[in-house]
Amino acid sequence: MKRLLITLTLCFSALAQDKTTSIPESQPALTIYNQNFFVAREHLSLDLKPGANHIQYAGVSAHIEPDSVILRDPAGRALQVLEQNYRNDPVSQELLLSFYEGKTIEFLIQPGQIVKGKIIRSGYVPSYTNPQGYQQQPAFSQPIIEVDGVLRFGLPGQPLFPALSEDSILKPTLGWLLQTDRPGSFEAELSYVSGGMNWHADYNLVVADGSTNQTNLVDLVGWITMQNQSGKTFENAQIKLMAGDVNKLVAGGLPMAKAANGAMRMADEAMAPVVQEKSFDEFHLYTLQRATTLHDQETKQVEFVSATGIRSQRLYVYDGAQVAQYTYYNPEQIRQDASYGTQSNPKVWVMQEFKNSESNHLGIPLPKGRLRFYRRDTDGHLEFIGENAIDHTPKDETLRLYTGNAFDIVGERKRTNYHVESSQHWMDESFEIRVRNHKKEAATVRVVEHLYRCNNWKLAEQSTASRKLDAQTVEFPVTVKPDGEAVVTYTVHYTW
């Protein structure tokens, strides 16, 4: 079961060379990427005359990338863009003061009391972006006003401007000087890339009543959260959400950092899906099936996926070697430091594992996001039992998530033997791992050991059958009885 919803707004105007061209409201289309940018597509009604035409489009996003703008006629009419301009300095009190520098205007001190003052310095200095992409702030911001021959810092009152400057704009504005060999009226298409819009997924999973300690049935509801900080409202927009790691350059030409990495059946077959998912290039698109509106500075959440009866397994993993403090060690230091890996970590991890497959009531590409797990208490209240984040996950992949540490299961790890023959290039090291279970039911724990001293190794002795996970990791599965203890011992022989 899939659901999604979203919303946005758009208004615009165009001016021909010798008359104002009215641009009616048109339904925009948006593709929002989960990397804080989006692509907007709109239609402009233009009426071009022979020769050069001055066109203005007011109300684009405040974070538009001007060099990404594409203006074209979908019917194939050739449009020659002689000039394109973008202005993002909407009129403000500070800007108007700069327009009236050297002139005298009135200031309202209080109702009925007005004084005249000459603007010596407005205090307005435009901000700009340096080559490294950082916004530079004005060097000063205090105006100087001359009143009755006396200079004063700061405004004597509320400035009363005679009129707007002819050069003033009220919204971010795109302007073109266009020429075409086929004058007339037509619908032009405008596309551009802009920052200031983002989305992410959140998943809530509720462990079903009657689930056993290590085998769970869970119900999943997925939500999309959309944030519009583009400086513009988009109304009645067709929305697509792009999921994937799309390479996008930021200021300075550096790539944008990537986030740390069958459709679902409807509960009611007669209900049309709210969101449709499909593969697109190397990514996945999630398309809202109805137009919606997203206001500027609005955060909107919509349900986009729902599933029940997902089989999930709770895993206990004991990785007992405490080595986080040695992250700067190189392989030679690891081999030579006799104390490396001898400190014990008592915590046993709690993991949730399930497969994103159609047979497991899922089987849909899952966008990256946060998974929260809940379980119902005996009083019927849902209690939060852990969360973690997932990367973009294709269908038929298995998800394994750390959700916390076990309270009633603890581990203890100690080295029992260490012998090195450096001249003969070998080493033996032995360990004893104890796992204690204080629960009222048995628990299966996966004891993970990292054979980190050298690439060449073999287990000379082991009390419990092991499974090799990778070139330097083995796992010993043990079942610990209620209020019992399991002991794993092994000796590893290294050569170099």
| Radius of gyration from CA coordinates | 33 Å
The biggest beta sheet, please?
Answer: 13 strands, mixed
The rough form would be described as elongated
Helix content: under 10%
In CATH, what is the class of the domain at 310-369 and 382-495? Mainly Beta
Beta content comes to over 45%
Number of helices: 2
Gist of the model:
The protein has 496 residues and is mainly β. The chain has two helices and 33 strands.
Q: What report would you give on this structure?
A:
It contains 2 helices and 33 strands. The chain has 496 residues and is mostly beta strands. Among the domains are: 37-89 and 169-195; 93-160, no CATH class; 310-369 and 382-495, Immunoglobulin-like (Sandwich). The strands form 6 sheets. Strands 17, 18, 23, 24, 25, 26, 27, 28, 29, 30, 31, 32 and 33 form a 13-stranded mixed sheet that branches. The model is unreliable at 1-25, 130-135 and 252-273 (pLDDT under 50).
